[in-house]
Amino acid sequence: MLRRHFLFSALTLPGLSAVAHAGAQPRYNARLICGGTQGGVWRAGLDLALDKGWKTYWRMPGDAGVPPQFDWSGSRNVKSLTVLWPAPMRFSDAGGETVGYKDHVVFPLDVAPADANKPMDLRLDVFLGVCDVICIPVKLEETLRQKSPSAVDASLIAAFAARVPEKVDARARFHVARASLVEDDGKPALALRLEGQGFDDGLDVFVEGGDFAYFRAPRLAGDPADVHLPIDGLKDEEQLRGKTLTLTMIAGDIRLEQDVVVD
Fold first, then answer.
1. What angle do CA 45, 28, 249 make, to 5 degrees?
2. Which of 51, 176, 200, 257 is the most buried (most CB within 10 A)?
């Protein structure tokens, strides 16, 4: 597989906001922002604004990317922190295929206190790559104290939280009824049988749980409800049979997540 080149000039930038440079030009601006509190959980957000055309990666970064790494161990009065991942996009270029976000993304953060009677002080250490033709590895150290949110920041977090895929349940507009292995044009492929409606609106599917292989974009296998995801790097099909995979499915305004077991 082709791999993207990294410019190894990682920066450690303390404070509430940070700007990285490749050459003389800024490539991103990062800040922690405050949202509201509901049911004892504080929703904050990591706001990452990128230069036009630049991108960063999702938790499954594709065949040529590196996933963001979050560490909040330096926080005070924080029992747990959950990173929410807005639905990503798929990008293809000469460096390979990547999965992530272009121009702007906010990662909502759900933060639970160790002591509900005390405020939370969030310290988030992040390592991520921001990329155009080259990739710049970036290390951020961001801090934020729990406080009343501004209307603008709360609205921004809510907008990106609305893009986080929902778990498939009885209310889901479509779901995968079956996942199996097939041969497609001489290569192994993951075959999905879909049920419901709305999956024919620009469907993309991202697969996690098969780190020994890479699943490419779905393509129709005749019936719109049958799609095949070609698989690269699979040496033994038995590695996948009976395995549980997590699928993130995006079609139009539908964003879903479902665990499936491969037949």
1. 55
2. 176
